Amino acid sequence: MAIPVIEAVPNISEGRRTEVLKALSQAVTRVSDVFLLDQSADPSHNRCVLTIVGTANPLLDALLAIYDVASKDIDLRVHRGVHPRLGVVDVVPFVPLHDASMTDCVELARRLARAVAERFAVPVFLYGEAATRPERRALEMIRRGQFEGLTKKMANDVWRPDFGPSVPHPSAGASVVGAREPLIAFNVNLETDDVSAARAIARTIRERDGGLSGVKALGVRLEHRGLVQVSINLTDYETTPLHLVFGTVEREATQRGIGIVDTEIVGLVPMAAMAGVASDVLRLDPLSQNQVLETRLQSLAGPLPYHFGVAK
Amino acid sequence: MAIPVIEAVPNISEGRRTEVLKALSQAVTRVSDVFLLDQSADPSHNRCVLTIVGTANPLLDALLAIYDVASKDIDLRVHRGVHPRLGVVDVVPFVPLHDASMTDCVELARRLARAVAERFAVPVFLYGEAATRPERRALEMIRRGQFEGLTKKMANDVWRPDFGPSVPHPSAGASVVGAREPLIAFNVNLETDDVSAARAIARTIRERDGGLSGVKALGVRLEHRGLVQVSINLTDYETTPLHLVFGTVEREATQRGIGIVDTEIVGLVPMAAMAGVASDVLRLDPLSQNQVLETRLQSLAGPLPYHFGVAK
């Protein structure tokens, strides 16, 4: 029997206090049969992203433990950060990995949403493939107005949550839970403190404003580094490869006389996206583009060490 | 107890006859507990490269089965190809993968060499980390003069083999067996039929002639495609990343007014080499360079499906 393995990528509104970041990671590592693959935190965004893999039930346990820590230790009324957010656990996407389907992820999103609403009295919106209305498919539509605008937004029946109370939780706000394909969070840091330049470049590249397919982008200021950032979500790296996104940002920056400091990945990136960049740059023929040792090994082995007890 | 997993990359002097290529792959797939990850064949090189992983004893069985097929079906006296060779199974490197050490690979090289000499009456030279003399560390020194020069070469005591008879096998020649770190076989195909251009570019980039660190290169003609190729082995992709090699070949070709048709990987390439290219091109900060999902998963799971019987 195949074991469906799912990835969860909770985005939590804390990127500064190391003791809270530690409590969040420990909430996951204390649960058996889930694996914390990554924790990325940024103080200016005041946000962290955990990447967790496992099967449905242990994942659910780990995520509820995260909600527990976040709702106790974070208060959105005093939270400041450059990234839009409406909850202490702002958004939790589920992504199908090994032997899992999108339907498995949608089902798990509903289970988590119901449990969060019941246990923490937090309103939950379903998004992405789990959305119950077309206008809730896009996360940014749900999040528009942020925590500060949430009471007013939810007063409109259109924004009644899928689960939980019809008003925000006083300190925890609301939460958005859903299912989606893998996504790459890729930030380009610019050698300037002019946030209007980052915003202009973000407008140029994002799909909504006529830019690159599958690209969402914001321009934000990174106070802690004294620079600005084009913060990008790339939802379809096959159509729009990462180096096309980077090259476009670089060209736009150069035209404004601005240099690139560096770039960063938040969370994890699928190997196929990195291999795709390398294949393009190296002009590899199509037959050579799938010649990665680890990919071949992984196709044999499956992703999870459920049988370490036997193997070792 | 950790299970040492080793990769073997036999290079066999057959790249044309599909029935022999099939017999070679079947020789591997018939053996339990070894996994054939790749078979790359080229008709102009008249050579194929198999990538096999497994533990020591099954690997040994699979490789002896390959020697059996090759010594029956290939006759070097009538073999023609642009790639240097001195045996029907020309060279077999062992590479340490998961929980294996270079010492494990050297030991396995010695076991294979002894068995090949005994069973097939083929002289075997040990190379790389398994070499018994400094001048035998480099494969190209052992192979210089090729099959056609082997009788004369072995008449000199300096080229007495490590195992087996002191004269070549009439049809199978000799074989070179050893242990090494991973290596990338990367070929750049040029839009010209002038093999002297490929040779000149190969000279420019190879370490031996003052070029790039860790690069070996040959210029050869690919009759079946009507073009020429710079055929490259890159032994240290951390010092000399793949796109530096490609960029240098491209620049040298451009200076000669020659275009690049495409490039190819022979065998498999470590993920780190592809991720390294992408990281450089994307200007990723150091912390973001190890953010590959599959790499994180693999560090949990180990590479081999020894426990599929339990898992499924």
Mean pLDDT of chain A, to the nearest integer, reads 93
Helix content range of chain A: 25-40%
What is the H/E string of chain A? EEHEEHEHEHHEEHEEHEHHH
Main pleated-sheet profile of chain A: 7 strands, mixed
**Which pair of chains has the greatest number of interface residues, and how are they split between the two chains?**
A-B, 58 and 58 residues
In quaternary terms, these chains amount to: homodimer
Low-pLDDT parts of chain A are 306-312
Q: How far from one another are the termini of chain A?
A: 22 Å
What gyration radius of chain A follows from the Cα positions, in whole Å? 20 Å
Number of strands of chain A: 11
Number of helices of chain A: 10
Going by helix content, strand content and strand pairing, the class of chain A is: alpha+beta
So what's the overall shape of chain A?
A: globular
What fraction strand of chain A? 15-25%
